[in-house]
Queue: 2 jobs
Job 1
Amino acid sequence: MLSLTDKHLLSIYSVPEGTTNQGRESKQPLPQIVEVQSADTQPAAVGQAPPGSVPAWGRVSSEGTCFLVRSPRALTTPASTWTHSELPSCTSLKLCFSFRMSVQTIRNVFSVETGYRLSDDQIVNHFPNHYELTRKDLMVKNIKRYRKELEKEGSPLAEKDESGKYLYLDFVPITYMLPADYNLFVEEFRKSPSSTWIMKPCGKAQGKGIFLINKLSQIKKWSRDSKTSSFMTQSTKEAYVISLYINNPLLIGGRKFDLRLYVLVSTYRPLRCYMYKLGFCRFCTVKYTPSTSELDNMFVHLTNVAIQKHGEDYNHIHGGKWAVNNLRLYLESTRGREVTGKLFDEIHWVIVQSLKAVAPVMNNDKHCFECYGYDIIIDDKLKPWLIEVNASPSLTSSTANDRILKYNLINDTLNIAVPNGEIPDCKWNKSPPKEVLGNYEILYDEELAQGDGADRELRSRPGQSLGPRGGRSRDSGRTVLTTWK
Amino acid sequence: MRKAQGSWEKRILKSLNSMCTELSIPLARKRPVGEQKELLNKWNEMGTDEPVLDLSLFRPVYAPKDFLEVLINLRNPNYENGDSHSFRTHLGLIQVPLKVKDIPELKEFFVELGLTAGQLGVDDSTQVPPELFENEHVRIGQKVLSEQDSAAAQQYIRQGSPTALRAELWALILNISSQPEDILYYEQLKTNVIQHDLLVDSLIYKDVKLTASNDDYYFVFEDYLYQVLLCFSRDTSVLGHFAYSSASPPKSYIRGKLGLEEYAVFYPPNGVIPFHGFSMYVAPLCFLYHEPSKLYQIFREMYVRFFFRLHSISSHPSGIVSLCLLFETLLQTYLPQLFYHLREIGAQPLRISFKWMVRAFSGYLATDQLLLLWDRILGYNSLEILAVLAAAVFAFRAVNLMEVTSLAAAEAVLADLSTLKVMPLLQIFLFATVT
């Protein structure tokens, strides 16, 4: 089994031409994942390379060294045939031949026009229509649809309380699309005019374009009836979502934070997903205040590292990142075990429900797997809220620890997605053996859940398993809900 | 010992005074009203605003390695090593023949850590079904708390404390019970901080910024550290511990009245001058207590019971000198090859482990492991476990250490302790090593 430890990658990095990899030590420090300069490199891998992709590990430069590549932007690699023999000494490492794609290039692969078909031994790291989950507006749409479906079916999951709020499926803050739902939004806004709302552009990331509002006048532009709309057509107005701002986040040390959790999905039908144990909290550098005078201060409200790293008090050693295990220890010590266990169970529940919501509409191409970055905020009542799901979570690192984490993340992801480090066959059953999970643990396995509901290998112990949620009623007939495998 | 402590104190004070004169900053001054208001406003976020003075001008008064040099040079003038064969062959740095426990005595002392008893930190791992030990242990812990039995708590915690019960158990053992007068006392200290500015405040800021602010586990609690430590330095009740310490608080005289006892004041008011890394004594407690006055009380009690012994020269079995000697003796007796090898390459083991023990391993171990270790400090009312753990760490990494050829390489092998699990290490060293 190929396990890409430090040693392996180091040897990849310093392969001189013609030498073998046996027993050679590299003294080079582990370099940052770099972008490939496509011009002076020779691609070398088996099979036809999909347009715009690069092999995850097998790119060999003329100097005889391999580079890991970041997602390429519009690389115009000719779809040349790569032969096995063009790979020098790297072949002895049995590199795996999955292809790393960006969200742009995946469109090319799966678009009808290019007529490209992935062969059986090629797998890619995005689902064709991942945007059903990762675009803010579509995610909300799919969750709303999912809830309505469950309600129609009479499922106990869709149970509501006296005020009409879902008991188990209320994990996304009230959200509207703008400009489409503008009037609906205004109605809701007027119900509690002192509330704060957060405007987010649908297609952007890293906190770009986000701002907070507490007055209708601040979003005049998106009003369907507004006079300005006569100057632009509806289609040129950028799509935004507006959500109720969670103005009572759980604070630690007086600062707001959110959770970044990594979730790997190997297949949607049956749903099989894994949660990375080493998630982290991203802290703001400035003390939190809900005061309206600070609504414009992004350092108070937005936890994205891309934003915080420009703050005065940003620290490059820890980067404001705090391991989720620390959060767990802190909450257990100060709030007790039951409420902490309940919180983490709810977080797992939220993630699984979001995946179930999009599973029916996902193109469950067997060549695909995907590692999502889930952003979750916990409020001061210890309720988790799903903020968004990222298809391309940042794999660059802001600190030394971060680099180790991301490195292990990629390693573990590939070990699960591509078994044994051998040339993949997309027809495999996508059930990796327990030993390769690394820092992942099974979050939900629909097949196992439907099959053997009584089989509990993972302990029901907080922090070490994803045990059943306590204290909620469940329909015992639907075994898919009663276990967490 | 007292003489040595006395001269060490003189050195510290000299350093402090010279820094004071160099920078022309008074040891203490009353804050102008405007500044007082400002400080009150930013009391909860002192971490983000830079203090008035430029911190780069300040140096910590001393670092653990300076202290180690002093300890190495301790000699007993009455002692003639002529006839004592065993001590003459002592290869370590400490040259003071204090009585320390050997492994059989330690096994007896730490009997609850033995292999036949359940432990948190060992028997609560995923592979062990909780019915075997953990559930029952938690139940007993809850009973101890409901009975509010401090002695029982101390006995109980020798096998480790469940995370959820730890905060209350420690409070019970340390006899902290957040009464209204305690909260009032803390508020009074806070007022003192607001009204007067002390030179040691800058030392505290600097220390926090250098250590806890950069720590992956503790940076989140930076502001709490200022709140606790600034108040601590004004707390004259801490002076009480000098009655059983070999140290004495530094004295200062009102200007112009040098030598006149009626004009002597202790400086800082609590008599404790912080050194580099001092804030790490407080940092782990922030995981347990988020209410400042309770956090303060717990820290103060931990300091006057335990931590003060780690930076003063005394013959107490939990004093740092004894801990160093215990560590060296354990290593030399049970890992002689390793000890000899390290000594030959100029890497005396104490030079590496000293900083761990002075800080009670804070900042070196992962927090959950550190808390399990401190559980046992409270349970056994002794710091000797720090020396045992230090020796156990060396034993664990002995294979790698035998291969190094320089002090720097030895440091590198022992640089990262964050993956260690302390209880298994201690158990193996004390109870499972063939001697």
Job 2
Amino acid sequence: MSVSFGGDEGGVNLTNFVCTSHHTADIISTVEFNHSGELLATGDKGGRVVIFQQETENKSQPQCRSEYNVYSTFQSHEPEFDYLKSLEIEEKINKIRWLPQKNAAQFLLSTNDKTIKLWKISERDKRPEGYNLKEEDGRYRDASTITTLRVPVFRPMDLMVEASPRRVFANAHTYHINSISVNSDNETYLSADDLRINLWHLEITDRSFNIVDIKPANMEELTEVITAAEFHPHQCNTFVYSSSKGTIRLCDMRASALCDKHSKLFEEPEDPSNRSFFSEIISSISDVKFSHNGRYMMTRDYLSVKIWDLNMENRPVETYQVHEYLRSKLCSLYENDCIFDKFECCWNGNDSVVMTGSYNNFFRMLDRTQRRDVTLEASRESCKPRQVLKPRRVCAGGKRKKDEISVDSLDFNKKILHTAWHPQENIIAVATTNNLYIFQEKVN
Amino acid sequence: MEYKVEAHRIMSISLGKIYNSRIQRGGIKLHKNLLVSLVLRSARQVYLSDYYSGACLNAQSEREGNEWDIMDSEREKFPPSATECDRAESPEEPQQSKQPEASDKEREYRENDDEVKSDQADCTSTLQQEQNPNPSLDSVGNVSPPETINEPKESPSDSSVAERQSTPVANGESHQAPKTHVCSNRKRSAEESESGDSPQKRTKVASSNSKEDEEGEEMDTSNVSNLITIFGSSFSGLLSKDSAKPEAEAEDSGQICCDQMLKNLNPWSTAIVAF
């Protein structure tokens, strides 16, 4: 069975998917490809960052199967304790964002709830040998034994990947940081918490500018919080932020220093027939992503994915149901806290397909051009050699067909919150709780 | 009836989540607690509005006496043994004039009571038209003096003014305000309870409020404390009603309702008091 996505060129062929999986020590909390797609970074609940690198078996044949292998592992954040508030600060990595590459080294920003760090990842494959005053192991030589002088030379060594923290951006957020986004100017970035968005310069750590503040004077009047924020991919003055009420605000930093007044407000009126106790929760937006071409943005709420045209504020241009069969289960999902899960979403390289996760280790690919969608599963079975990725179907009610899975059999502990798509190729990274699956389309 | 049970269940679950969020690692999540408090508010509104609209519709039926008793047991702020007949005349203006600067939540809280009062007025007039006074209600009705109504109203205004002064001071975490809430709730619960379990109720309300202190800014403390008071008053209302009303049918439906609450209340009170 072959399902083709995204048109004839650049489409996603779901047969012959090659899958590799990496078991992780801790729950994965973020996944991000760098700008070239060669590197894939994951952050986990224990504050660690693991970077995978694409290895091409045969560089002359780029369509050959390439694997992602561990390139570097480092501890980015440690648990901290705020003594003033008697609060523990989790070390869980909430987001990782790569900087565009400027030289041989790679840079990424990683953040937990309170502190953002800029990491430099560099390779070392040579080391100096032949010092006069030191032995090779570093011990100092006895001066009396030195009779000749030599010039140290660089000799090749086993590749070593070093990660070093270059900047620490701390103490700027009272509430929990949910997003970071690097500006297209490659000099600034924003960080967003529940009530405020700050603008930083990558070189300056001791100050940041507050550009959005939605904290009410009286906290009892609080009705919404910021849930995600992102800079426009090309326009360095534009950013968006989403709210727990299902609205997205687009702001222009040229308009004023404090961007509390939005330039555009994107909001779809609520469908009154779907009103329930949980309407407000499921309308809360968990992720917002600009398309690569900068003309659209995508939002993810609990049950659906919406594509918005930046020129049309009153409704999205496309709406896709991710798992509508959950609408009747909202009360149970509220009880077991699943209704608060924050699913992310991502675009493919040419903005023709979007992808998001669901429960039972299912993830969904939604083709915008062909108006088709498929549900796939990230599991051990799908990683067997020569395994064809089989589309899955969920039976909402009534008679369950063969090969369908009923809603009540879904495992809500197996959730895919984080997915990423290679910027150019049809390679996707899907994170289950403890495993990172990398699916790659194999072109014959 | 099913809506009431469902709404009540959701309220209990929501309170549990708020309670658990205190001990979660990483501090209180503002977003999640905001959403939970919204659900809590929705459930409470359904719980109360559905209840009263149902009661008014049935006011002309034979079971109207029973409905009155259920209404009494569910009433938040008023003494459970009091009746609405005497309070029909209690004007809404004094309430509103007392809190010209009340915060939104306080206003909403009082609006609910205003709705309740208007419902009462309608139901009372219907009752009087029917010329079917319940002797037990009349006798009980003379118990509550008008002052009982007004005094609880003053404390929220005090607390609301104190809150507004204190919130700019703290960095979003109004430590002073919840304390004032505690005081006001103590006053309210002292006014309401005419049975012997008022100290217990006060403890419960105070502990629940102190539990909410650490929630800080986002907690709708007035609503939650109302819920605690509902549970508390329903329990004591049942006790005081045993002596007041002779009708057996009232006790059935009232008891079922209160039993459900009691089942939930006992582990709650243990948990809250322990905290």
